[in-house]
Amino acid sequence: MTDTVESLIAARETRQWLTGLTTPPADKAEAYAVQDAVARRLGPVTAWKVGAPAPDAEPFRAPINAATVFDGADRLPAKLFQVIGVEAEIAYRFDRDLPAREQPYTREEVLDAVASVHPAWEIVDTRFTGFGSQDGLSHMADQFNHGALVVGPAIADWRSLDPLKESVTLEVNGETKVETVGGNSAGDPVRLLVWMANVGARSFDGLHAGDVVTTGSCTGTVFVEPGSRSVARYGTMGTIELTVD
């Protein structure tokens, strides 16, 4: 595993992108172990990405370091990325620790630990020479294609939010790219938060006060060029904008 971790770190530092991993992960456990080792090298973990391909599918996750979390930003430098894939998401910020424990947390306990809910951007990226060019476990090991997380303003009365009914329109340079309602393939995002508290974040001793968990794309991934202006209009959560140039 050491050579895989070192190659992913080196690609970030040198921007010499990888054509593949010398020793690709054999299973999800190995891919997660690589994720965790790279994240610990990169600095404090203050956020997570979590998603699932279907409402009844096992979730997947990746730790996100403080260096790639941006609160309230509407502009990021394009030099941070190899590719720029924008996704409009819903993110939850915790104000209470949920340390790893034997007894599973209930849905109510997890929600009681949430401080606020936010519209958010995830920028997806890759340390490989082409986005989607590798097997799934290799991309999982590479922080599941994470590039940056931009956390928008907290919404009022977040407990009344119904993510399955939330509409989102994604525009790029004034052109509508996606219009959707409840577009997250995982279905109910609270299911993902409960999984994170009970399973996904155990290797970092659970979730911590201040952590942000972004719960997967509502719009799919839209790849944009440097200088593009992206706008996400939510049905009840307001509007967020982002320029990457």
UniProtKB/TrEMBL annotation:
SUPFAM superfamilies: FAH (SSF56529). Residues 61-244 form the Fumarylacetoacetase-like C-terminal domain. Keywords: Lyase. It comes from the Bacteria. One of its GO terms (molecular function) is 2-oxopent-4-enoate hydratase activity. InterPro entries: Fumarylacetoacetase-like_C, Fumarylacetoacetase_C_sf, Hydratase-Decarb/MhpD_sf. GO terms for cellular component: cytoplasm. This is 2-keto-4-pentenoate hydratase. It comes from Azospirillum thiophilum.
